[in-house]
Amino acid sequence: MHDLGLFMTWYHHGWLAEYALPAAAGAGLTWIGLARHAVGKGRLLGSRRSAGLTLLILALTGAVGIVAAMALPHLAKLPPLTAGLATGATAMPRKKQDDTTQPYVKFMTLGIAWFRERLEYRMHLDACRWCDRFLDGFETSTQLRVFIYDLRNYLLDRHPTLTKTVNHLFDAADEAMVHALDVQTRTDEARRDTGSPWMREPTADETYLCRSALGEARNRCGDLLLHAYVHGRRTEQPELESLRTKALSDDAFHSSPVPRPRLTFRRNRV
């Protein structure tokens, strides 16, 4: 009883009831909403900028909660006609809106809607930059094939509900890598002089074809890697790094291409 009385004493303090509790409630609900909205899109704390935007949105929402709590006693003074007009306005037909928040919505929410758009864009940019950095060092289509094959098995093992999407992305990446390998093989055959062990320098067109094919393969591999990033957790980073190290090492070409029995068993169940 003493503890309950102490809590009620704290609650009756003006700063707690009028400021702290509304701000904490608004920020807490906003965090839950942002976390749910970020599922499958990126990470709220993926970089300093995204973390800063997240904290700014929480702070603004807390401020809105304080303002709303302070204005609540004055709402009773509004005429009943105002409540009727506001209720009727919610039932009016609206035009189909695109994904971009309208300017008046940004104004009415004190800029929170605009910052949410910036946060979503920043999360996507963080994911793309992470994938680009992760794929640095892959110089041949063979290395990409080793990595993407292990990545596909890894995702199917840990995210069985994403089997269809993972297999679709893997098929697209594998097709692009096969095409890149075919272009490289035909280019090497064309560069090889008859009766000589040496190869001539590639022409500008041959260099363009090889680089564009390899670039397309990297992009398709990046799609699967991006899927692993947005649906994964930070704790999975060391395991992804180990897959990358294995693909870039010489031992990768001597490893067995047969997947682990545990992975095969789980995929068959799905």
Structural commentary:
Keywords: Membrane, Transmembrane, Transmembrane helix. The chain is mainly alpha-helical. It has two domains: 101 residues, no CATH class; 135 residues, no CATH class. The C terminus is likely disordered.
What is the strand and helix layout of this fold?
Elements: H1 2-11, H2 14-37, H3 48-71, H4 80-90, H5 103-108, H6 112-134, H7 141-158, H8 163-191, H9 204-231, H10 237-248, H11 261-269
Structure in a nutshell:
The protein is mainly α. It contains 11 helices and no strands.
Keywords:
270 residues, mainly alpha, 11 helices, elongated, transmembrane helix, membrane, transmembrane
**Biggest sheet, in brief?**
none
Fraction of residues in β-strands: under 5%
Over all CA atoms, what is the radius of gyration?
Answer: 28 Å
**Approximate helicity band:** over 70%
- Number of E strands: 0
Keywords: Membrane, Transmembrane, Transmembrane helix
Transmembrane segments: 20-39, 51-72
Region (Disordered): 251-270
